[in-house]
Structure formats: structure tokens, C-alpha cells
Amino acid sequence: MDIKSLMACIDILNGNHEIFSDGEVLGRCYRKYPGAGAAEIERISQKNQIVFAEDLKRFWMESNGLTFQSFGGTRFFSVEEVSDCLSALEGLLVKGVYPIAIFDDDTILIDGNRLGSGQYLFFGDISCLELFYPLDCSFGFFLERMIQLAGCKYWEPVPDAYVKPVSFLQD
Amino acid sequence: MTYIAPPKTQANVKIYLYSGSSRSSCDKLENSSLDFVISGGQSKYIEATAKTAYFKAGAKVNGNTFDNASGTKLFNKSGVIYPTYTNSDCGVTVPEPSLNWNKTTSISWTSSDRTKYLKWFEQTYLNGKTQNWDNWQVHHMRPRAYGGQNNYSNLIPMPETKHREFTSWFAGY
Asked: Alpha-carbon distance B76 to B170, whole Å?
């Protein structure tokens, strides 16, 4: 599904209730924001010398961030927040890599140096940049999954026996 | 450490650094002292290689010793001071970390775990009143990546900007 249609779906899903396998009832709750301008996205890209994924830019132009659930803490960052996060991690995070979302203490990183490979999305605990794991999907696909799951993580527990972590800590 | 001389004075100054693995055991660092004569308004500083450790600075000014001129601070490998935070609802202050934690694979922390904890927090500290948790994170005081567990005594809600200070500090631990 393209990003514009995906973001339109949110208005239909908002307020629906889901019952999860552990009995937890989750009220679907999404908060969209006004879109960011292309010039602002480009400015932040240049300022931080990072390459944004094309579908990520389309997402920001539709909604500059996205918050899930009534218990907060799970959201896609706005383009400005990406810049703030990078400032906090200056000198630590490998150049070209940037955080785009946080889900229950797991941060989602995009490695802008690998956009061509299609394997550029990773998750992990930002306290430990040496241990990040691939999500094996594009940003658009990941966004679709997270909207379907109302922001719940689907990647735990980490199958560390066969998924090799990647280090994003600068040497 | 930077020494700024008071106005309209001239002084013989020696400044030096201490470092250690706890607040109470900081030793004077070799090659981290500087002797100089300074006039009012001027400043001089000394540096040390950053590492995760406690640091404090001392000074001797015209023969008078000030051994804890800076207070003792906990730094990481990036030279960033460990942040502080107290949650006003539960009264808990985030303690300083041990300096010998090892990196490990994080235990699971799910959306359901987070929701249950925040509901418990509301019942326990907010008289059951619902709080808007937008822009708040549940912080693991000992991070999961360093062996931290999900027991409630290891958790504390904090604003997202503050949470970012803690997590990025640990990225340079």
C-alpha cells in the first residue's frame, strides 16, 4: 500500500478495539500531525549529512510523526526529532545512521548507507549501539505493519541464535 | 577543568584531576596537573582522556588547597556527565550505575509489559488517576542491554527528552 493510502487508513482504524492473545484489550489510538515541508526535510538531511529513505520522506510529508496507543512511548519521530536524537548521539553513532522511531524502549534505526540493499532497518536498545538487529523490510512495509499492530512490537524475543547483530557504534 | 581567576588578582595556581571507580576512591591522575601564574579574569584548563569513571578536580591557590573544587562527577567515554532525574510522583531518584556492567542481549520488554507497569504506577502513586503518557518513556535504570530486568524496582517513568539523555549516556558507557 502506498504511504498516502496507508495514512488514510489510520482514520478508519482509530478507536477500534483489539483483544490480544494474552487477553490484553487495546484501544487503537493513533495521532497524526501536520505534514512537514520538503524543504525542511531536505534542510535536516543536509545539516546532518544523512540520506532519508524515499518512503520515509513521503510519510513525513503526510504526517510529521505518528504516536500510538493511550500509554504513549511508541511512536515514529518527526523529522526534527531525528535531528535532536542525532545531536544526543554525536560521536557515538556511525555516520549516515539515524533513529526514526521508538517502540517500548527499542529504537528503530535506518542505515542510510545501505538504502540500496533494501536491508536498512534495524532495531535495538540505544543504550548499546553494538547490538542492533535487522528488521528485513522497507520503511513503508514496516510502517504498514506497525499501523496494523497499533504500535505493538512484533520482533521479540530476539532470535539471537541465528540473527547476527550489527554494531553502529563508531570506532 | 577550567580555573578562572577572580578579578583584580594575581595568583600562583596548580590544578589537578582525580579519577576513580567510585565517589570515595578517586586517585590523582599522573600527568594531569598544571602550574601557572594567572591574573584576574584569565582562565586556564586541563584535560584528561575520557573514560567511564568518576572525576574531580582540585586546586592549590597561593598555597591554599581546595581538594574538591569541582565536586565529583560521573563521566562516560564521550566525556558526558551522568544525568540526574527524580520522579516527583514516586519520589524515586535514578541511582548512578555500577561501572562494571557488561553488555548482554536484552531481555524482552513488550507493549503489554509497559501498559501493565504504567497502570500499576497510576494505581500506586496517582490514586488511580489516569495520566497522559504521551512523550513519556519507561526507563530501565539498569538498562536491559546491561543485564537490567523488568522488575518494577528497576523501572521509572520519565519524560522522553530526559530518557534520551540517559540512553545516549549509556551508549557511551
From this structure: 8
Q: A-B interface: how many C-beta pairs under 8 angstroms?
A: 106
Is A152 within 8 Å of B110 when comparing Cβ atoms? Answer: yes
Beta-carbon separation of A126 and B106 below 8 A: no
Instruction: Give the pLDDT band of residue A154 (cuts 50, 70, 90).
Output: confident
How deeply is A77 buried, as exposed, middle or buried, from its count of CB atoms within 10 A (0-12, 13-18, 19+)? buried
Which of A75, A53, A81, A80 shows the shortest CA–CA distance to A141? A53
**What would the grid cell of residue B161 be?**
527528552
pLDDT at B87: 98
CA-nearest residue to A169 within chain B is B171
pLDDT at A164 over 90: no
Residues contacting residue B127 through CB under 8 Å, at least 6 positions apart: none
Q: What is the pLDDT of residue B111?
A: 82
The domain in which residue A66 lies consists of 3-94+139-148
Q: Which residues of B27-57 are buried (b: 16+ CB within 10 A; e: fewer)?
A: eebeebebeeebeeeeebebebeeebbbbbb
- Please list every residue in chain B whose beta carbon sits closer than 8 Å to the beta carbon of residue A20: 112
Separation of alpha carbons B84 and B113, rounded Å: 25
Of A117, A120, A85, A119, which is closest to residue A101 (Cα–Cα)?
Answer: A85
Side chain identity, residue A36: A
